[in-house]
Design brief:
heterodimer, A: alpha/beta, Four Helix Bundle (Hemerythrin (Met), subunit A), Rossmann fold, 434 Repressor (Amino-terminal Domain), 22 helices, flat, B: alpha/beta, 8-stranded mixed sheet, 51% helix, elongated
């Protein structure tokens, strides 16, 4: 499982607590950590070098904004620099030309070209309502043409038949003139996998490119590729005027450093991600996802943003105040539950944390305590205001009243009360001083209208989870 | 870059002349493109300085050896350098070679010579090169005089069965298959029964490519293995994971997960005829203690070579 860069960075910044500026000296350790994270993610070493020089330049002298600590400030910087390299927007296919718009794929053997062509065909047909024709110019790999034919049936897109006795050039020529005559909007061309050092095959694809005149030439690359992605991408980009990249097999657990290498070397945008084996599992590229994955941070960054967007600041502030005074009650717990629900529930939150994809459902349920947010809220709603602040009052008959009122049973009520007690204990452990600091942060966030850590316990959640999966560190 | 392949092509009488030349050509291309190898770095007597080690780190990482294994190797270089057992860059070359070789499990050639049908189950992620490797393996066993049969266990990918059949037809090797979408375990079971009945020496079973993160597909592999074990507990005699030589550090996860699910007995590494160096197998071999059987160095039928650790290690540094 991924080491958590966030945690490692905060360790390397420990000595800086309270400093307000990043200096060359204290940035060095942090840069080393980022370098490691990127190397573990298979980003090409030359690319890392260039990237980190840029980060270092930006980092030195950087002022730590109020409300952030040095490591948070640094992560923000790394994130925004990474986003700059990888492209901050999603660029779709450019198909504005005299039809048929030709889209050709190129790449190494086994990268996933044929599958991607079929997925693209379906995508263009369904989402962009295009009339699509596809053709295979792979006369080398046994049954490659047959594979595309079978896939064309699966996605319900027309297929231009070719045979291995034809030259790829002729296949492409005939397919294009057929597409013209039959008024197809888009012609998708699958090509044979080839090694970038195979001159004969590379010149073949150049010929195909000149013949077909594609408006889009997409380089297909396996997200599990290692350091060699840089060489490969360079050779393909030198040989062909690429217009974009498809990153495949991203449903695995590869960190996908190849994405950064390829993007950096070709300068072309990643346009699509292959996210599964089924033909509809192709998604337009989202840079933020790849960025946090590269750093081994799950979607922590987008989580932070999401939380700051959705959290009700006032309520959060009130809760924090109460927590600080040790007066956290069941109404506050309900508020937090509702806010969690608003953000897509615990499950969705957990899915965004690093490494959580790996944890089997049974364990997840354990961590969640089988928590049914709605049920928990209902139970709290069935209590009187007094009960919510004085849980000691809740005994036998009150319990059955609450259970009846919420449509649950006494066991569920007991469970909730236990969870609440645990949570209260946790709050006390966190202690007064930390709580005060949090309060200060809350106030700042209120003023700046932006929240680096909207939920008071976010850092607890992320550290606890990604570190040891310790669900007991949850506030609830 | 790959000296060993050059050596092999000149000594390998089986390979067709045409393929031999083109392979040589290919490799010389990739050799040219890699300027800064270890041999040039270690040329002449140089002190083992931090700069030298840094360049060494770059070379090792560029070969996909991975940061952890690289750290381990560099640490041992540092220790030996400070103990003066390692004096200069000249000694470093052979030291590194032996350090890296230590990580690799000494090769043991596959012993297929048994009375009963020898079953090789081939697994791997999508696009690793399983079917191609199977075709080449089958050919090489056939050349050695064994009778071979193939089981088309990839019933998922479009035209995967056809792909294997084309290989079989070209080389006169029987392929047992069912329709696409059939149960993979049952195809392989049938194939085994058929192979046994026909006294076939070696049965090679293809399976669908699957990412190691997909639990249900990994369970399908477990089932295949269970079905074979029911026939005879020593089946399959070989469970081979095929790894794309261009893979990065994720290959370690792949190997671990496949091993956990179905107990691998070996690895094969494909697509090493490009510039990829497949260094990730050092980490895998080190962690899982599995031998590497074959490496794939080209698309031709004879481009599957027996793996020889020392030659592989040397190739990293060229």
């Amino acid at each position: 499982m991924f080491d958590n860069l966030t945690k490692r960075l905060s360790d390397s910044f420990k000595s800086l607590q309270g400093k307000s500026k990043l200096s060359e000296e204290n940035v060095r350790d942090a840069i080393r950590e980022v370098r490691r994270a990127l190397l573990e993610a298979d980003v090409a070493i030359d690319v890392i070098k260039v990237f980190l020089e840029q980060v270092q330049k930006e980092a030195i002298g950087l002022k730590v904004r109020e409300g952030l600590n040095p490591s948070q400030e640094f992560i923000k910087l790394v994130e925004s620099e990474l986003t700059k390299v990888i492209g901050s927007t999603n660029e779709s296919l450019q198909l504005n030309t005299q039809p048929p718009a030709v889209v050709m794929v190129a790449g190494l053997q086994g990268a996933g070209k044929t599958t991607s062509v079929a997925k693209l065909a379906l995508y263009l047909k369904e989402r962009e309502k295009k009339k699509v024709l596809m053709v295979s110019a792979d006369v080398y790999r046994p049954a490659a043409i047959e594979q595309l034919r079978v896939l064309s049936e699966q996605v319900g897109v027309d297929f231009f038949a070719s045979t291995i006795n034809q030259s790829p050039e002729r296949i492409v020529q005939e397919a294009k003139s057929y597409a013209q005559k039959q008024f197809y909007d888009v012609l998708l061309i699958d090509t044979a996998g080839r090694l970038h050092v195979d001159e004969q095959m590379m010149s073949e694809i150049k010929v195909l490119q000149r013949t077909a005149k594609p408006i889009e030439t997409l380089f297909v690359v396996d997200s599990m590729t290692g350091q060699d992605a840089a060489h490969t991408a360079k050779s393909f980009a030198d040989a062909l005027p690429l217009t974009g990249v498809i990153l495949t097999k991203t449903d695995g657990d590869a960190r996908g450093g190849a994405a950064l290498s390829v993007r950096h070397i070709t300068g072309k945008p990643i346009k699509f991600l292959g996210v599964g084996e089924k033909v509809d599992e192709l998604e337009p590229f989202h840079p933020d996802r790849i960025v946090s994955r590269l750093l081994g941070m799950g979607d922590v960054l987008s989580l932070v943003e999401e939380i700051s967007r959705k959290v009700d600041h006032k309520k959060a502030q009130q809760s924090a105040k109460k927590m600080a005074k040790g007066q956290f009650d069941l109404s506050d717990m309900r508020d937090q539950l509702l806010q969690m629900e608003q953000m897509g529930g615990m499950e969705s939150l957990m899915g965004k944390l690093p490494g959580m994809g790996q944890i089997p459902d049974s364990v997840k349920n354990q961590i969640l305590g089988g928590a049914q947010t709605k049920q928990m809220v209902a139970i709290i709603n069935s209590m009187t205001t007094k009960e919510r602040t004085h849980i000691k009052l809740i005994k036998g008959s009150r319990k059955s009243r609450i259970a009846n009122g919420s449509g649950t049973n006494v066991q569920a009520v007991n469970k909730l009360l236990k969870q609440f007690e645990k949570m209260q204990k946790q709050m006390k452990k966190m202690g007064g001083s930390k709580m005060k600091k949090m309060m200060a942060q809350m106030n700042q966030m209120q003023e700046s209208g932006q929240s680096p850590a909207g939920m008071p316990d976010l850092s607890k959640i992320t550290n606890g989870l990604s570190g040891n999966g310790g669900g007991n560190k949850f506030p609830f | 870059m790959f000296n060993l392949f050059k050596k092999n092509t000149t000594t390998d009488n089986n390979s067709g002349l045409e393929q031999t030349t083109s392979l040589k050509e290919k490799l010389s291309k990739s050799r040219q493109s890699l300027g800064n190898g270890l041999s040039s770095l270690l040329l002449g007597k140089k002190e083992i300085s931090e700069e030298l080690l840094e360049e060494l780190e770059t070379i090792l990482i560029s070969a996909d050896i991975g940061i952890q294994t690289t750290d381990k190797v560099l640490e041992s270089v540092r220790q030996n350098a400070s103990r003066k057992t390692l004096k200069d860059s000249e000694g470093l070359y052979s030291f590194l070679k032996s350090e890296l070789n230590k990580l690799l499990v000494e090769d043991t050639a596959l012993d297929v010579g048994s009375e009963e049908t020898f079953v090789i189950l081939v697994v791997g992620v999508n696009g690793a090169g399983k079917t191609t490797t199977i075709g080449k393996m089958a050919k090489s066993f056939q050349n050695d005089g064994s009778s071979v049969m193939l089981a088309a266990g990839d019933t998922f990918r479009a035209a995967a069965v056809e792909q294997l059949k084309v290989w079989g037809d070209r080389n006169g090797i029987p392929v047992v298959s069912q329709s696409s979408g059939a149960d993979s375990a049952s195809v392989i079971y049938d194939a085994y029964e058929s192979a046994k009945a026909k006294n076939i020496d070696i049965l090679i079973a293809d399976t669908a490519g699957r990412l190691h993160t997909q639990g249900n597909l990994m369970r399908e592999l477990e089932k295949i293995k269970k079905v074979l074990k029911k026939i005879n507990n020593n089946l399959p005699q070989e469970t081979m994971l095929v790894i794309d030589g261009g893979s990065g550090q994720n290959a370690i996860n792949q190997a671990k997960e496949f091993h956990k699910a179905i107990n691998l007995t070996s690895l094969s590494v494909t697509k090493l005829d490009g510039t990829a160096k497949g260094g990730v197998i050092f980490a895998i071999s080190d962690e899982l203690n599995l031998p590497i059987r074959y490496i794939g160095v080209g698309e031709g039928l004879n481009d599957l070579r027996n793996f020889i650790p020392s030659e592989f290690t040397e190739a990293l540094f060229d």
